[in-house]
Amino acid sequence: MQFNFSNPYPSARIPVFARNVVSTSHPMASQAGLRMLAAGGNAVDAAIATAACMTLLEPVSNGLGSDAFCILWDGKELHGLNASGRSPQAWTPEYFSKKYGDGQTTPPKRGIDSVTVPGAVSAWMALSERFGKLPFADLMAPAIEIAERGYLVPPVVRQKWAAGAAELKGQPGFAQAFMPWGRAPDIGELFQFKAAARALRSIAASKGKSFYEGDIADALVALSKELGGSLTKQDLANHRADWVTPISRDYRGYTLHEIPPSGQGIAALIALGILDQFDVAEHGVDSAETQHLMIEAMKLAFADVYEFVADPDHMRVTAAHLLDDAYLASRAKLIDRNKAQDFGFGNPVKGGTIYLTAADESGMMVSFIQSNFQGFGSGVVEPEFGISLQNRGFGFNLDPASANVVAPGKRPFHTIIPAFLTQDGQPVMSFGVMGGNMQPQGHMQTLVRMLDYKQNPQAACDAPRWRYNAGLEINLESAMPADVVAGLAARGHRPAIINDSYQDFGAGQFIWKMGDPATQGYVAASDPRRDGAAAGF
Fold it and tell me: Which residues are tagged catalytic?
């Protein structure tokens, strides 16, 4: 790929060129990853150390009670890891109707009954055991230091921290952990998290086992019992992170890989499969015509994803059905180039997250994502160890006819999705975008810019984005050109200009392999929508 390295967008950053590189949404986390690489570790070691730091540096988006997913190239082949947690064995639709009444359509958004088994620590364990080089305890050292000594809170994180605190201050343990002065920290204020340091030491000493079988597990179960929840020691002990085969779709001579359901990564594959039926590059990169085609393709993808995607053991259709060439071609025919539409799902069987990426000069590349969901997750924090618990149970529904209905030991529909790009079976780019249903939308928009228009990763990252919500409604970043806004409105879209880019348009990191990693290295991009930083040597 011969990129155009000019960058026409006002938020332009300088891409980083290096043989060993880490790209995250916080510079201190990037530095932790580089420490591991400089100490003789590989990209997996760097990713784990970085992920541990991010539980502290962006507590709004993730914590020690998060879930996680990963796609990595080990130098020879691609591997996928699903470390999302399953529901407690007690969870059924009747469990929730008995506690909360028959009017509930989903489990609660907050509180202990939104918490499934946290999987992030199991991701660190699995990655380190299979691919890591350094001792596991070494990988926890930077995070332990940050938790003990503290760090100065940056602007974007503080903005979301304050918003979350207003809603969650009454949740058990939240104020004690995240409102140390009775409020969210101010910009530049020192935040220390001694309880999390205690947890990280336990995780380091036990290589993570204490989280699922030891002192941390005991504390989580005791908290759940105290709050009337249903999480048991057996639920934690039964958890496993699963190695999976990524699903994929070709686009413009490259192959995009995503984690299979119950995640929404398949939405990006469906949308690109639909978009592949059009000559996108015949229009300008920032034209209304191009944005309209992408929006309509994404709508069609979401219509199917929200109907069919669930824990794969419970889906009525397979990923292969949804990605079938003939089916995607038929869906593409529904797009009107001049009119926005509100699509329904098809018939494929006829008859608040952090993302990071790391790569090293041996050729190993890691695409990693972990999240608490919905900004601080459940809001519940175990006080002894500072475990901020996710609320992925909110991703279930309570309709018995749905493939995504809650059930014992089941994984809910999941939003967080790492991505990976290959060409002719060889690695090209590890990348991801954060922010709920913005993630597959961001995957598609940035890939189209790079593959159809040859924009370099940093320019594709900096460019203004849109976000589809529902029906005909779309959000547009304030930097979107006025003629594009007018052109979309003329086609029947209902655009709203949003200035809060962190909340509505995600943020991403990208590492593109420039050639032989040992000699030519990589080019890395980080997103201006957060306090991100790519760094390397």
Answer: 353
